[in-house]
Amino acid sequence: NWSYTPLLPLTEGPHTFAVTATNTTTGETSGQSPIATVTVDLTAPTAPAIGAVTDDVGPITGPIADGQSTNDNRPTLTGTGTAGDTITVYDDGDPLGTVVVGPTGTWSYTPPALDDGSHTLTVTATDPAGNESTPSAGITIVVDTVSTTPVITSVTDNAGNAATPVPSGDPTNDTTPTLTGTAEPNSVVAIFDGATQIGTVSADGTGAWTFTPETALREGTHDFPVRATDPQGNVSQPSGVWSINIDLTAPQVPTIDTVSDNAPGG
């Protein structure tokens, strides 16, 4: 076995090598070996680009714009490159994994599950000689896989001359009381009477929402839980129940049993 390292660095480009062997005793030299060609490549590939980051989890699917939120914690990254180059995917500068550019010049990569929160994704390309490009421009996505559980903060009786709060468990004669609460900003809040959905309302940018039934509620007990679906499509757990008792029945007419004369001498 033998090895040889050139004394001077080889220039970039192709180099052909052949060797002969000389017997140091007889001085006889062998024929030339087959030629081996080596191409010195010192040039890094052009920085690649992420063509798209795609949400594959319903109910909302499709490309994720830079800065947008998604409920897919394993979105698919796609792009183009030079066939045979290795694409390394980074999350906030930390490597997630690699994929080799296919013969058609395209690549696709699905990362391991990302934590909820902001992630800036970049890629580099490494050619077969080991030269790595500069990072691509980053695409930032916000992974959001959990919807905040909404809360009913009050129920209001509007049947009288003035709005009156109805504590949970108390009666009211208002068949269309107003429910008020909080939820994740810009989420859609579904209101239930027991297990039956009776309507929806959108929370505003601060998370506040208000709902008044369009159809009068029947007399009796009503248990109101609510759920929220956030802009990414995540459905929350149900809120705590707010119970009211709609009472439309007037009391029985009272009777006078006796009238007493309390005056002296009466």
From TrEMBL:
InterPro entries: Big_13. Residues 58-145, 172-247 form the Bacterial Ig-like domain. Residues 67-84 have a biased composition (Polar residues). Residues 64-84, 156-176 are annotated as: Disordered. This is Bacterial Ig-like domain-containing protein. It comes from Enterobacter hormaechei.
